[in-house]
Write a structure and sequence with these properties.
The chain contains 6 helices and 8 strands. The chain is α+β, with helices and mostly antiparallel strands. Helix 2 crosses helix 6.
């Protein structure tokens, strides 16, 4: 199955990309769990679409007022002083289409993560920095990371954003509009090094296989083509 454009043309009008991404993550996990990962590892899917957490102050106040309504003894509520800072902020909502590989014999510790990029991960500088910081946090913990970007709606390159945070140049790979990048960190002579394997993704061409590092010395093949094909078949998506 050649890679399709899920964000433009007739396919965008016929299918929601969110449904495709979440289904693709599921098929990636299923394939990894069917003999690709070692027996002590399992792939799990995590999907979140820009959820904001908001405290309902009014409800909290009403619950506080009800404490003495039933005739019992009211408990004095401690009230802090006025805040010394009170300004509006814009916390970036992060879309998450992620497959985590966890190790069952180590309290389900995450050893690898596959990130399917969404438009909201690329549309603003804050979003791009947050995505890069999330990937770098994984890498700092020794977690292998794979980033899959098939978003044609925005041409910004998150591989370049990640390396910019480290004040490094992404080279030609930083100019790819669509790509898959696999990362690992290794320690050599007491110095940590970041290594990356980047492959371009091309519309109307098959998807590649990249290494998924489940520890610094061991990788399994992440063949994206079969899971992509399975997703297209399950959702009745055709060129």
């Amino acid at each position: 199955m050649p890679l399709l454009d899920h964000f433009h043309g007739s396919l965008r009008r016929r299918r929601h990309w969110e449904s495709f991404h979440s289904s693709w993550a599921t098929f990636i996990a299923q394939r990894l769990n069917r003999g690709v990962l070692p027996k002590n590892c399992v792939a799990e899917v995590h999907v979140t679409l820009g959820v904001q957490l908001e405290a309902d102050v009014t409800a909290e106040q009403e619950r506080g007022q009800d404490n003495g309504a039933a005739g019992g003894t009211a408990t004095a509520v401690w009230a802090p002083s006025r805040p010394t800072l009170n300004i509006p902020v814009d916390f970036t909502d992060i879309d998450l289409f992620e497959v985590q590989v966890v190790r069952e014999d180590r309290d389900l510790r995450v050893v690898a993560a596959i990130e399917l990029v969404s438009p909201a991960n690329k549309d603003r500088p804050d979003s791009r920095r947050a995505f890069a910081a999330k990937c770098l946090s994984y890498l700092h913990q020794g977690v292998g990371v794979v980033v899959v970007d098939v978003v044609t709606e925005w041409t910004t390159n998150l591989h370049a954003e990640l390396l910019a945070v480290l004040e490094r140049d992404a080279g030609d790979a930083g100019n790819l509009p669509l790509y898959v990048a696999a990362y690992r960190t290794v320690t050599r002579q007491k110095k940590c090094r970041l290594q990356a394997w980047t492959e371009p993704l091309v519309l109307n061409a098959p998807l590649p296989t990249v290494p998924l590092w489940i520890d610094p010395a061991r990788a399994v093949p992440l063949d994206l083509e079969p899971s992509y094909l399975a997703t297209c078949e399950a959702l009745l998506v055709s060129p």
